[in-house]
Amino acid sequence: MKRPGWIVTLLVPLAAFVAAAHGGTVPAQAPRDLGPVVARLVDATTTDAESQALAFRALIGLGRPAVPYVVSHLGDGRRLPERSIWIRAPTGRADTQYHPWFVHDGLLAVLKEITGYSRAPLTGHLLPSQRERSVRKWVRYCEERYPAQAKVCSSGVAVAPTHAGVRGETIVRRED
Q: Of 9, 79, 87, 101, which shows the fewest CB atoms inside 10 Å?
């Protein structure tokens, strides 16, 4: 039996070439509609600590095709049951711990893990203006990188001046 090492040797440079040819953008269509999946996982982050951990792990596991759907949930001001997320790192990197207070903060950590980019401080201590600014930055990033899904990027995001008695808390607008 021959070793398939030569195939890997050819495919890795080919994959790098294809990625460079796309100019760092993502192909227009994801293989399936991840909207309902991401919505269920985001809702699961608020039930209990165990569900929260599993949901954040699953969101990260969806990878880059899920970015527009995750961005559409930014601004969700619901509190998380556990203010700690541990991300088990692939080999060669230390595990990472985030301290989100709200769903929005947890989704920022998910986006950082998926994309490698951070558009805001990753703590639960953000001011309402910082949350709003981070949402705008992520929506702009999403619309540039996923032009075919630009409407998805901003579909659920809304910022309200007052909500549940907390000044400047962000909320999610849904058109269900």
A: 9
Q: Which residue has the tokens 């996923």?
A: 146
Q: How far lies 33's CA from each of 69, 71, 157, in Å?
A: 9, 15, 19
User: Two tokens at 147?
Assistant: 């032009």
Say which amino acid occupies 25. Answer: T
Which of 56, 58, 67, 55 is closest to 115 using CA atoms?
Answer: 67
- ∠ Cα 67 70 76 (to 5°): 155
Q: From CA 176, how far away is CA 173, in angstroms rounded?
A: 9
Which positions of the chain have pLDDT values less than 70? Answer: 1-31, 89-92, 121-125, 157-176
Contact in structure between 102 and 74 (CB atoms under 8 Å): no
- Whole-prediction pTM value? 0.69
Residues facing residue 138 across a β-bridge: none
Identify the sign of the CA torsion 121, 80, 58, 89: positive
Please tell me the distance from the alpha carbon of residue 150 to that of residue 29, in angstroms, as a whole number.
Answer: 12
Alpha-carbon gap, residue 38 to 45, rounded angstroms:
11
